[in-house]
Amino acid sequence: MKKDDVTQEAPVCAWFVFNNGQVLIEKKADGYHIPCSSLPPTEVPVGSTIHTIGYLNEYPAKTYAIYHPVPGNEDSPRMMKDLRASYDVLPLEEYNKAGKASQILNWDKNSRYCPMCGVPTTQVSPIAKRCPECRQEFYPRISPAVIVLIKKEDSILLVHARNFRGTFKGLVAGFLEPGETLEECVHREVMEETGLRIKNLKYFGSQPWPYPSGIMIGYSAEYESGTIKLQDEELSAGNFYRKDNLPEIPKKLSIARKLIDAWLEGKI
User: Fold this and answer.
1) How do 59-65 and 13-19 pair as beta strands?
2) pLDDT of the chain along its 268 residues, tens only?
3) CA of 85: how far to CAs of 11, 89, 186, 218, in Å?
4) Vertex 162: Cα angle to 156 and 227 (nearest 5)
5) How far apart are CA 238 and CA 36, in angstroms?
6) Which is nearest to 86 in space by CA: 44, 31, 141?
7) Contacts of 94 (CB under 8 A, 6+ apart)
8) If I label 208, which of 26, 171, 215, 258 is the partner at 20 to 30 A Cα–Cα?
9) Per-residue b/e over 40-79, b at no fewer than 16 CB within 10 Å?
10) How far apart, in whole angstroms, are the C-alpha atoms of residue 183 and residue 138?
């Protein structure tokens, strides 16, 4: 047999398969994981592009969208899982990569045509498309938002936003507007949503937030003045809480919880 007649086996890849915000996961002996195999774990629909999104555990990571969910539940070898909920069952590295995959698919879906010419775009790199007519280039759009933990003596401000999924209380947050700095955004959002003035603003950290395509920039601050006056269309509740009377707080996946935990541990 000639060397040219030997068919090389396709390399093993990590496959991030999405349908309507849910990612395909598989049950293994040590828990749930993203499927890894030489071939895609499902048929790739006509018109669905396979995107390369880097590496996962030394394997090439790829993602594509399917039009119908894969059937299955907790008793099945594989099932679809809401991306947020996958945080509770996937290893952190796999959840983080799934978030990137979700954002790439969202970008792909929303950048198929040039907004200037209406001409179909052409993908020229893993994160770039180009209009063949006017030559504009389009990259994944990321929306920055700020979030802030406000301290007042031995308490912190917790609020319930009307768009929260659940009854928990979290932190004041909002999207950056054109022409303002991140710090100006924090002061504006706090004033608009609560009527409070803050001081001693300090950067805490940031977190990709793929719901659908954002990044959260976290701060801590101290109460300066004012009486809580909630922005009714944004918040349904808000008050200062001590460590011994905290209400239900956000889950571990969010930077809001990381800020609250840091305060509980006396780190901020």
Assistant:
1) parallel
2) 344 443 457 899 999 999 999 999 999 999 999 999 999 999 999 989 999 999 999 999 999 999 999 999 999 999 999 999 999 999 999 999 999 999 999 999 999 999 999 999 999 999 999 999 999 999 999 999 999 999 999 999 999 999 888 899 999 999 999 999 999 999 999 999 999 999 999 999 999 999 999 999 999 999 999 999 999 999 999 999 999 999 999 999 999 999 999 999 999 9
3) 29, 8, 28, 22
4) 40
5) 45
6) 31
7) 14, 33, 34, 56
8) 26
9) bbbebeeebeebebeebeeeebbbbbbeeebebeeeeebb
10) 28
CA–CA gap between residue 201 and residue 199 (Å, rounded): 6
d(C-alpha 184, C-alpha 2), whole Å: 68
Q: Give residues with Cβ within 8 angstroms of 159, minimum separation 6.
A: 169, 170, 171, 172, 193, 194, 230, 235, 237, 238
How many Cβ atoms sit within 10 Å of the Cβ of residue 144? 14
* 259 sits in which H/E element: helix 255-264
DSSP alpha helix (H) spans, 71-211: 83-86, 92-109, 182-194
- Determine the length of the chain: 268
Q: What CA–CA distance (Å, rounded) separates 91 from 93? A: 6
Is the peptide bond prior to 212 cis by the omega test (within 30 degrees of 0)? yes
Nearest Cα neighbor of 113 from 134, 97, 143 is: 134
How far is the C-alpha of 15 from the C-alpha of 33, rounded, in Å? 10
Provide the residue type at 126 as one letter: P
